[in-house]
Amino acid sequence: MLKRSAFTMIELIFVIVIMGIIGKFGVEFLAQAYRDFIFSKVNHELQANSGAAVELIAARLKNRIKDSVIARTGVPPAAPVAIANADGTAASYTVLEWVGYDYEGFQGRLNTNPNWSGIIDLNNTNAGINMLVSPGTDTNATNALISDLSDTNSSIVDAALFFVGANSDIQTGYGWDGNLTAINTQDGAMHPISNLAGQADRFLPFVGDFSGTDVYEYYKLAWTAYAIVYEPGANNLGTLRLYWNYQPWKDRNGDGNGDQFNSAGIPVKNAIIMENVSTFQFTAIGSIMKIQVCTKSTVIDGVNDGAGYSLCKEKTVF
After folding, report:
1. Hey, how many other C-beta atoms are within 10 angstroms of the C-beta on 250?
2. Does a structural domain hold residue 223?
């Protein structure tokens, strides 16, 4: 006779207890692992987005005319504040603006000289109040590159010279306040220029002449200003947007004022840098700038958890 053994009651109870323990803690372990994965994914996304944002801003700021950087508490006509007097960590500045010199043109094209040399020949007998000579400069190539970079919306006649070492009033010298009086009387920091057909190394004044202008040997050529604007949105989160292809030293829409990034009737370009931005801060110590971008995600795995997950990135720009 064959005997078949079965589980005793004690063994069954023991198995049930073990399975209960495994079920309770196993599910919690898997749930925690899943949450860790989701937070890791969100952290990676926020790290990548905020890192890309500060790197893009820093790359543009690197080629700034350092004396030109201003802050605003709102879009123009909000008054410009010199960055040296603005502490973005303590005030509600939502706009950062500067004039960037034509870095691409100064680098030149592959295996060629720079499009503009950055040097004025002060002793050239052809130079005078109506013309400046810049040896090694090719205004035709400069014009073509500006046209390419602006999608044919700007040219060399929209450009201006900044003389390195010249005194300038940041409030009036760049056109930030919309008043072109100082610039048109050659007292500004930016000196609008034109080119001379057939002589690519010559600069002509766009308005009047260069009389009364402190002309220095070294200059930088600029054709656009830049603005980083924080646009508030829902849930205390906003959007960072970059504006370019506007010239505060020019009046392209004919309203009598220097152009701003929010001026109507001019081909200003813009692009979103980052969304879901909780904080955009900046400060300056001398010519050194520090920027900070903070982002926040309140949605985890498609569900708004209310608490959110925040992350900040910083960058120092010399």
Report:
1. 23
2. yes
Q: In 214-296, which ranges are continuous DSSP H helix?
A: none
Counting the structural domains of the chain, the total is: 1
Structural domain boundaries, residue 168: 66-275
Inside any domain, residue 219: yes
User: Strands, E, within the chain: which ranges?
Assistant: 70-72, 81-82, 95-101, 132-133, 160-163, 190-196, 199-205, 219-232, 238-244, 269-285, 288-300, 303-317
Question: What tens digit of pLDDT does each residue of 70-115 get?
Answer: 999 999 999 999 887 666 555 689 999 999 999 999 987 666 789 9
Distance CA 118, CA 234 (A): 46
Question: What values do phi and psi take at 27, rounded to 5?
Answer: -65, -45
Q: What angle do CA 228, 230, 231 make, to 5 degrees?
A: 130
Note whether 28 and 150 are within 8 A (CB): no
Largest CA distance in the chain: 127
Q: Would you say residue 115 lies in a domain? A: yes
**Whole-angstrom Cα distance, residue 206 to residue 31?**
69
The answer as to whether 312 is a domain residue is no
pTM: 0.85
What are the Cα distances from residue 166, in Å, to 8, 67, 148, 173, 174? Answer: 98, 10, 30, 11, 13
pLDDT digit string, tens, across residues 161-193: 999 988 778 888 999 998 888 887 777 889 999
